[in-house]
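ugh ok so i messed up the first submission bc i forgot one of the chains. this is the corrected input, ALL of the components this time, i swear. 523 residues overall. if the numbers dont match what u have on ur side tell me asap before i send this to the collaborators (the ones from the other lab, u know who)
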Amino acid sequence: MATVPAPAALRWTERYPEIGTGPLPVEPYISPEYFALERERIFRKVWLNVGRVEQIPESGDYFVKDLFICGTSIIVVRGKDGEVSAFHNMCGHRGNQLVWDEQGSCRAFTCKFHGWVYSLDGALRHVTDEGNFFDLDRASLAMTPVAVDTWEGFIFVNVDPQPDESLQDYLGAELRASIAGYPFAEFSSDYVSWYTDINANWKVAHDAFAEIYHIPTLHRRIIADVYSSKGNPWANALEFALYGRHSRVSLSANPAWQQTPVEALAARYGSAVLQQVNSGANAFPPGVNPTGYPHWSFDGIQVFPNCLIYVSNGTYLTHIFWPLAVDRCRWEIRNYAPPAKNLAGRFSREYGKCSFRDTLLEDGSTLERTQRMLMSGVKKTIVLQDQELVLRHRHKVAESYLHG
Amino acid sequence: MTDVHLPEQFRDLQPFLAWSLATGSERSARRQASTMADIEAFYHALLPRLDAVLSFLAAYPDEDDLPADVRRLFHLALALAEVAPAVENYGQPSVVDGYDVARFVVAREPASGRCARRR
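and heres the new structure output, hopefully the right one now
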């Protein structure tokens, strides 16, 4: 039976001495002051993943994103020239929120308050009863742009009026190379999505999905044996790599995984069952399944600060965690897969959706309980083992923004 | 007279027609509100027929212009996808120790046919 290659003499965390091996403080999860610093020095400064280009395929298609932590709502729109733009969702007249729908398609944005009209490029095109204004300067009243760029079809924005660096530089060459060529576009025309507002710090939620150590215990009823095997009972990772602010983990699957009866039929009639063991793992570009392991399951990419992208064979998913308050966040989940080929394939997709959702409900069970106990103040630190190094790294990167 | 039938070869599943619900939210709500005995009766009636049902449904590319009896069968199959974890993983209708499914807001369901191609 294939087993995970034994790590070298140094454990993963020890290969990155800058992130240390000691306990982490509880304060970042419970301190209002820490939360305020995160807002000002991280979320208002960095590039944030707000969606996919497939959400706005045609000129005039738009979606609205509430960036609670940045204190604004933005419109992301595909313009007449086919390019993606982003604007603060605000009328230049007296400040009304311009677009109220979550998504749509239009030729121009019309304010519901007094009827001002803006072009897709943000220019103020029409002012109702314009003659009654005084020295109105239309150019200065255009929609306020937000920095926007795309990477592998993901749309990122940066609310800093003058971002320190481009999205491509923010992501870095290593991260971009690691996933280059993965067929995101092929899988992205259809997705299922949930969100939920949780009474927990956004990092409590984020951290629950940034490590695999919990799977054999918390998920023992549903997916543990997809990953845990005789040779690798704790589902230790194949590889970790830190890429500046970001990181990647690569995971194996259990070669002896036994499917349930419905799961087996779902797998036979469709390709989008989330827990499929990926025997065709070498069909991907070299950066995916970096160790070339035959029983690969997925690679998890952590894009600092709040985005996780998990890619596997035939499907990928994203978790994005939006801070709402020090003890509250919105957790957004999307699972992308190619459209079903027929209604039997649609059943497979439905099974994948339901079993994935139930797995997420298991994950969700710990978050508010963890937050409550962290806020008790009983313990001042938490400890992390080697396989939890993504959390340690995320903390270290945040510290460099807050106190760098 | 209102036609409430399944396709001819699946009439044996007729007693479970109440599970044939059009939306994921309805199917989830029915699972959560059902007893385990009801869920298991449905699961054990449909599972031995599932291969035949899926083989039948595979002939239809999408939901567009679907005959009413086929649509009922399709929604019945989707309900099995919903209840399968209750039987196969949890032994109870809800996820054991799970986060409240009612707090999970469905932002988008999987699409079929034209909807999937559009957006």
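quick check: Residues 113-119 of chain B have pLDDT under 50 and may be disordered. that seems consistent at least. The first strand of chain B starts at residue 105 and ends at 108.
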